[in-house]
Amino acid sequence: MADSDAALVERCRSDDHRAFDQIVVLYKDRVLNYVRGMISDRDDADDIAQQTFVKAYVGLRSFQNRASLHTWILRIATNLCIDYRRRRGRPDRRPVYLGATGDDAQAAALEIVDTRCDPAQAYARQEMSLLTRNAIEALPDRLRTVLILHDMEGLPYEEIARIVRCPLGTVKSRLFHARMNVREQLLPYLRGDVLAQDGESR
């Protein structure tokens, strides 16, 4: 844990409320962006972000330095998002950009690039965006969480493992399966088969 974070935590434990205000300033944007990636309803996402810091404030006295403060706060946010989705009892609706880098992503990564296109291409891109969104929504929470933490938030495997509390190999496996599940749903469109058939029928 960074020295500045350690000092802030110790000040919070000494009932220095200004120290916690500094923690909020340091991490509020990252927490809010992450939660909005998990939860599409803007008001609910904002509420969950606030709840994250409330729970962090309450739990700081029992916080241990085995993980970074950032990792610990994101773990709280992750659990709140998963609880929210379970209470809702249905997939959350959110268009998500899915990109990837690195050797392990070459076979499974998906990328939708903004380009100037004619109406037919625009229709195809709209269809692909909808299909991608639906495929990600259908992922189990354990896969969706890892996908968003890595491909949207850009967190390394090691930090994700600490957030979701599972081995490093499990994180890599979940990310691989998440990407492959989405790719499997989109494969006919990536090949152009379905869009071509749809275009011929119009």
Mean pLDDT: 78
Total domains: 2
Gyration radius, in Å: 20 Å
Report the CATH topology name of the largest domain: Arc Repressor Mutant, subunit A
**Poorly predicted segments:** 93-115
State the gist of this model.
This protein has 202 residues and is mostly helical. 71% of the residues lie in helices and 0% in strands.
Account of the 3D structure:
The chain has 202 residues and is an all-alpha fold. It folds into 2 domains: 3-88, Orthogonal Bundle (Rna Polymerase Sigma Factor, Chain: A), CATH 1.10.1740.10; 103-201, Winged helix-like DNA-binding domain superfamily/Winged helix DNA-binding domain (Arc Repressor Mutant, subunit A). 71% of the residues lie in helices and 0% in strands. It has 9 helices and no strands. The N and C termini lie far apart (59 Å). The relative contact order is 0.11.
Which features does this protein show?
202 residues; mainly alpha; Rna Polymerase Sigma Factor, Chain: A; Arc Repressor Mutant, subunit A; 9 helices; elongated
